Structure formats: C-alpha cells, structure tokens
Amino acid sequence: MRQRTIASHFARAALGGARRQGFDYVPLLQELGISPELLDEPRARLAPAQFASLLQALRLALGDEYLGFGLAPSKPGTFAMMCHALIHCRTLGKALQRGLLFYSLFPDAPSLTLEAEGERVRLSLDESTLRDPDHFLAESLLVIWHRLGSWLIGQRIGLEQATFSYAKPAHGAEYDLLFPCPLVFQTQRCSLLFHSRYLDMPLLQDERTLKHFLEHSPADLLSRPDDGNSLTSQLRRLLSRDAARWPDLDTVAAHLHISPQTLRRHLREEGTSFQELKDQLRRDIAIYHLGRADLSLQQIAEQLGFSEPSAFHRAFKKWTGVTPGAYREQEH
C-alpha cells in the first residue's frame, strides 16, 4: 500500500517502440485493464504491478526485451541467460564485467562500460546505440543494472551521482524514484557513479534464488520504485502508518529530533513540501484500494481522513486528472 505509483509518462514512453513499429497495442492494454484514455492523462498514475504487467506483456508481444528501442531486438530469455552466466562469479566486480561482456557479444546491443574514477566507478551507456527518443531504454538499462547489482550482493548500492545526456524533462520530479542521488543533466553521457568498494563484495545469490528472481525480472526491477534513504522516504514510511490521522509538521519534526524550520528546509532541498508529500501518499494509497474491490469509495475517503466523499472525489481528480469512480471502472 505504501508503494509509490508510477507516472503515466513511463507507460506512454514504454509503448513508443511498439508504436514506431506499427504494433497495435490497444487490445494488449484492454487485456491488462489499462484504459488508453488513462495513459493520455499526464497526471494519471499506475500501480507498480500494473506497470510490471505492461512491460512483461510488451516484451512477449514484440519478442524483444528492448521493446523496440534497440538497433536490433533482444530475444526474450537473453537477460535470463546473462544472469545465469554471472551468478557463479565470486564478487560483484567480476559479475558486472561478465554481464557486460555477455551483451558485448551481440553486435547491435547497447554499449555499456564500467570505468574506474579514483575510488569510484562509473557505469556509462552510449546512447548512440539506441533508437530511444524518450530515453526510456537508456534509463531502464541504468536502473536494471543498478538494481541487479544490489540484489546480487544483498544490499542497496548507494549511488553518488546519475548523469544524463539530455535536458531535465517535464517529468523530472519522478527521477528520485529511479535514481535516489544527485542528478546532472546535459552531460556527455548517461551514467551512474558509485563507490568501488561494492565491486569487492561477494555475491550472496545462487542458482536457486536466481530462479525466483527471474520469474519477475527485469520488469519488476523497473516497476519497483527505489525509496532510498531520503527524508521524503522516511516521512512516507512514518505517515503511512495511519493515513486517517496525519500527524502535523511539528509532531513529525519532533519525532525526527529536528526543528520544523529545518524539516521544511530539507524537504525544499529535496524538491517537495510536507503538504505535497501527504497528497502523494494519499493518492498512492487511494490507487492501491481502487485497484481492489475491498473498500467502497466512502470507506477509502474515510481511511484517508476526508470528512466527505465529495472532498476525496475533488482531491483525487486534482491529483490524477480522473475521478476515483472512473479509475476504478478501468481497473475492473
């Protein structure tokens, strides 16, 4: 229920390769219970499970793990075979090198490199090896390799920087879910920077755990937002314990042992506010319940602390561009 929802932008972008190939994906969307109208609404959101299902279905329908964004398709099963090739490596460094070597054997595969920069290492992507106007595959590849690496060693690899070869897009506020670190736009290449100490860490996974991992990856790696250790994430965890009785800003500041002014400043530095955070959390909890038939609209409104269903109705439409009833209808 606390899971962050995913902006409709990413679903539209994911369909770009299929669109360019003239593939009619409307029946696919209908099968998944995703209305094309919802995707056309810039403020609309998808539940993580919905997004993962869309990526899985697209991959199979197109017969391409790159979803039409590579210079040549990558047959379904390629990612799994790469994982089998690296799972027996002793350290993360060896595993990443073997994984990147595996993909370099395909002449038209996206080009990824791992280079040392003092005590840091940079994973870089050459975007010229993609046909990816919305940068969907570029961002996906960086996210997948980061999360795959974190899974292999059983702990989150702390990112120190993410760079992008293009200007900050309109949906730039969503990036903290993908890359919880300082972001730099309009650089020479897309890359991730992290400390080299991770490369010496042993792999904690094996063939048995890999089998379970591959049942849902790589789609699951992309659909699971990374909350990181930011103040925003801490507050979401704190607030979501009881959505009906929100503590006020002063109470939260006292809980964190900081002054309300400091809390406001930190949230401002992370590009958000206390009110915005509460609204986003309410929106995500509402989407969670609307996707299930467990609660009526009135019960959801009460759970979120709204005195009237009409107030919830107005707020949800403001957050997502659609009414709660319309959202529930396209879900079922």
Description:
- It contains 17 helices and 7 strands.
- Helix 15 packs across helix 16.
- Strand 3 and strand 4 form a beta hairpin.
- The strands form 2 sheets. A 5-stranded mixed beta sheet has the order 3-4-7-5-6, covered by helices on one side. A two-stranded antiparallel ribbon has the order 1-2.
- The protein is of the alpha+beta class and 332 residues long.
- 48% of the residues lie in helices and 9% in strands.
- It comes from Pseudomonas tehranensis.
- Residues 233-330 form the HTH araC/xylS-type domain.
- Keywords: DNA-binding, Transcription, Transcription regulation.
- This is AraC family transcriptional regulator.
How are the SSEs placed, and which strands pair?
Elements: E1 6-7, H1 8-14, H2 16-20, H3 26-31, H4 36-40, E2 45-46, H5 48-62, H6 78-86, H7 92-104, E3 111-117, E4 120-126, H8 136-153, E5 159-163, E6 183-184, E7 190-195, H9 207-214, H10 219-223, H11 231-239, H12 249-255, H13 260-269, H14 274-290, H15 297-303, H16 309-320, H17 324-331
Parallel strand pairs: 5-6
Antiparallel strand pairs: 1-2, 3-4, 4-7, 5-7
Protein name: AraC family transcriptional regulator
Keywords: DNA-binding, Transcription, Transcription regulation
InterPro entries: AraC-type_N (IPR032687), Homeodomain-like_sf (IPR009057), HTH_AraC (IPR018060), Tscrpt_reg_AraC-type_HTH (IPR020449)
